[in-house]
Specification:
Elements lengths: L3 H23 L9 H5 L13 E4 L3 E4 L4 H7 L11 H10 L5 H12 L6 H9 L6 H12 L4 H7 L8 H27 L13 H9 L5 H13 L8 H11 L4 H12 L7 H16 L6 H13 L17 H13 L4 H20 L10 H10 L8 H22 L12 H8 L1
Antiparallel strand pairs: 1-2
Helix pairs in contact: 4-19, 6-7, 7-9, 7-13, 8-9, 9-10, 9-19, 10-11, 11-16, 11-19, 12-13, 12-19, 13-19, 14-18, 15-17, 16-18
The structure holds carboxymethyldethia coenzyme *A (CMX).
InterPro entries: Citrate_synth-like_lrg_a-sub (IPR016142), Citrate_synth-like_sm_a-sub (IPR016143), Citrate_synthase (IPR002020), Citrate_synthase_AS (IPR019810), Citrate_synthase_euk (IPR010109), Citrate_synthase_sf (IPR036969)
Family: Belongs to the citrate synthase family.
GO molecular function: acyltransferase activity, acyl groups converted into alkyl on transfer
Length: about 425
Amino acid sequence: AGSLKARISELIPQKQAELKDLKVKYGSKKLSEMTVDMAIGGMRGANALLWDLSLLDPEEGIRFRGYSIPELYEVLPSAVKGGEPIPEAMIWLLMTGEVPTEAQVNSLTEDLNSRAALPEFVERILDNCPRDLHPMSQLSIAVNALQRDSIFAKAYHDGVHKKDYWEPTFEDTLNLIAKLPLVASKIYRNVFKDGKVAPFDPKLDYAHNFSNMLGYGSSEEFTELMRLYLVLHADHEGGNVSAHTTRLVGSALSDPYTSFAAAMGGLAGPLHGLANQEVLRWIVHMVEHLKTKNPSKEQIAQFCHETLAHGNVIPGYGHAVLRKTDPRYVAQRNFALKHLSHDPLFQTVSNLYEVVPKILTELGKVKNPWPNVDAHSGCLLCHYGLTEADFYTVMFGVSRSFGVLSQLVWDRALGLPIERPKSMTMESIRKMFD
Ligand code: CMX
């Protein structure tokens, strides 16, 4: 009693009834019309998925279970007075739609900490990965290896009743979320440092252990940054590549590990999660190319034009749904203004904000010239010494597990079916309309 699992168990009948009511009342209503353009154009604008954890408004940005990011600061508990919200509180909110009490947050921390250890063979697999294997590939390998202990896969094999699918899905989800900081830290320490990971401390919270194991725990500010980072990247409604992949693969009743590993393949794409790596690499390249730590706005503009002339994107800018500055960017900017306003890299990131939107708007085809979450995260991590850009998307992945796996628990609790949209050939489309 008092646990996250107990609360979800109480909520399931209500949510099942809500879904049934939605079906009965509105089952035959149109959400949007599919056009040929949408079928060719990555299904942009197709309202085609049910996703209860968060909703993205093109102008305002993300709301998690109805709460905007500034509202999260008001309602969620923090570890430091007036500081960043605690990731465990975010997990609770995403899973239940309810703001947790401090006791509930503490019980979740305890629960996660009791699940954090890795099987030895997974540690060995990571230790045997070559250093030049991309950290995202190592993450996928480790998550696939953790699948050996999937409780859902075993329960399915043993014939569990479909009404009970959510329970082993929940167990796998919490186990995986609990283990990801150690997986990520091992990858980081193996690839970029001495291979040694600081011991896990069951008395500390999720983000504090994570920053300790990465090797930055002596800085309270870095730990606060981890809290912010883990909260901000947790979910971005259901249609983005990592969320949709988890849903799609999970809909075949693949277990949470397999579904999440597949999603990490999607997050590893440079148009999605890998953009945070690309942003930092691109800025470092610019600074080296211009031979100054403080490039002027004119120099930055010139460099942007060169990037575009080479047929490359400006990483960290643009979005498929957003049409304004990403509030996740704003939250990170606020963190920088509070803690590191004189950092030269932050100055450059700020100057880019003043220069890039105008240049992208002038192209005439970019639907959103404003920065997204990935435009800012690297400069914050760099400030505290975490400069290895190739690692950034792994941290994004740790956070993204909160949202996509919580939704997966609900997918099973609500009995959502296997996903299988109809596809068409060019010829069949032509025949339809000629
Ligand atoms: N720089 C240059 N060109 C850009 C651009 C950018 N930042 N953003 C969009 N465009 C171009 C597109 O490539 C496209 O060009 P073509 O018609 O020649 O193919 C055109 O503008 C129209 O694209 P759009 O409708 O505005 O954007 P999409 O919905 O197709 O794509 C996104 C969205 C994010 C992939 C795109 O803006 C982009 O590539 N941005 C840079 C990469 C990035 O920051 N990704 C991270 C997104 C957040 C995340 O998922 O983590």
